[in-house]
C-alpha cells in the first residue's frame, strides 16, 4: 500500500516521540543511534512536511491540544481552500501542497505547515500573495486566530526552529520525503530488533490492533496486537 507524505510524516513523528523514553534511546544507542541521528530525523521531517515543527514535549494525549488543533483545522482548511482556489489558484496550491485534514498527532504537522505558509503570505512582496492574505483575513483567519494556533503548537515544541527553505518546491519536498522515509525504514528495523518491551514498541507506533496499514516496504513486526498499556497514559512509566 502506498502511503501519502502525511501518513509517512506521522509515522516518523511517532517514532521520534518514542525515542524520548530513556530506555528506548539507550537501546538504540547500543546500535549507534546518537544525537546527530535524532537531529537528522527531525530535520528530515521538517523538510518533508514543509513546516518548522520541532520536538514535542511530553504532552498527554488527552490534554485536548490535538483536539483543539483538529477543530481549528476542520474549520479553516475548507474555508481557506475554497476562498483561494477561485481567486488565487496558484497561491491555494502552494498553501495546501501535500496537506489534508488529519487528526491526532498528525494534525500538529499539517497545522504547523499551514500557519507557516500563511505567515509567508504576510511577508511576501507578491501582489497575489498580499491580496490572498487579505481575502483570508476577510474570511476570519485574523491575527488572533493565527496566534491561537501558534500558541497551541508551541505547547508541543521545545527546541528552537531550524531554518529551512522558505518556499520549497514540489521537487524539493519529494526528495526530502524519500530521504525521511529511508531514515525511518533504517532505524525502525533497528528499533524492532533492539527493543522488546511492548509498551515501548507501541509508543513508536509499531504495535496496533491490526497490521493492515503497514506498507509493503516497511518491515512488519512479528508481535501480536498491542497491550492496552500506553506510555503516555498516567502512571505507565512509573509502573515499570
Short structural summary:
The protein is mainly alpha-helical.
Largest sheet: none
User: What fraction strand?
Assistant: under 5%
Q: Number of helical segments?
A: 10
* Radius of gyration (Å): 19 Å
Large-scale geometry:
elongated
How would you characterize this protein structure?
By secondary structure, the chain is mainly alpha-helical. The chain folds into two domains: about 1-55 and about 160-240, no CATH class; about 60-160. About 60% of the residues lie in helices and about 0% in strands. It has ten helices and no strands. α1 (about 5-20) runs antiparallel to α3 (about 35-50). The chain is elongated, with a radius of gyration of 19 Å.
Chain-wise SSE layout:
Layout: H1 5-18, H2 22-29, H3 35-49, H4 65-87, H5 89-95, H6 106-123, H7 127-139, H8 143-154, H9 170-194, H10 198-203
Helix pairs in contact: 1-3, 1-9, 3-9, 4-5, 4-6, 4-7, 6-7, 6-8
Amino acid at each position: 500500500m502506498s502511503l501519502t507524505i502525511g501518513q509517512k510524516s506521522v509515522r516518523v513523528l511517532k517514532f521520534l516521540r518514542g525515542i524520548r523514553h530513556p530506555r528506548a534511546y539507550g537501546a538504540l544507542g547500543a546500535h549507534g543511534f546518537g544525537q546527530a541521528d535524532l537531529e537528522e530525523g527531525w530535520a528530515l521531517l521538517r523538510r518533508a512536511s514543509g513546516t518548522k515543527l520541532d520536538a514535542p514535549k511530553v504532552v498527554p494525549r488527552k490534554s485536548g491540544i490535538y483536539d483543539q488543533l483538529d477543530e481549528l483545522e476542520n474549520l479553516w482548511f475548507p474555508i481557506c481552500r475554497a476562498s483561494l482556489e477561485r481567486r488565487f489558484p496558484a497561491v491555494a496550491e502552494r498553501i495546501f501542497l501535500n496537506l489534508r485534514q488529519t487528526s491526532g498527532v498528525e494534525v500538529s504537522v499539517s497545522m504547523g505547515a499551514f500557519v507557516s505558509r500563511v505567515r509567508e503570505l504576510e511577508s511576501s512582496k507578491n501582489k497575489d500573495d498580499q491580496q490572498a492574505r487579505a481575502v483570508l483575513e476577510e474570511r476570519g483567519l485574523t491575527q488572533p486566530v493565527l496566534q491561537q494556533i501558534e500558541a497551541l503548537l508551541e505547547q508541543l515544541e521545545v527546541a528552537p526552529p531550524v531554518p529551512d527553505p522558505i518556499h520549497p518546491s514540489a521537487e524539493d519536498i519529494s526528495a526530502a520525503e524519500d530521504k525521511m522515509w529511508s531514515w525511518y525504514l533504517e532505524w525502525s528495523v533497528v528499533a524492532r530488533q533492539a527493543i522488546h518491551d511492548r509498551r515501548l514498541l507501541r509508543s513508536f507506533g509499531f504495535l496496533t490492533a491490526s497490521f493492515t496499514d503497514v506498507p509493503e516496504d516497511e518491515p512488519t513486526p512479528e508481535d501480536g496486537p498491542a497491550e492496552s498499556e500506553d506510555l503516555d497514559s498516567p502512571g505507565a512509566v512509573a509502573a515499570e
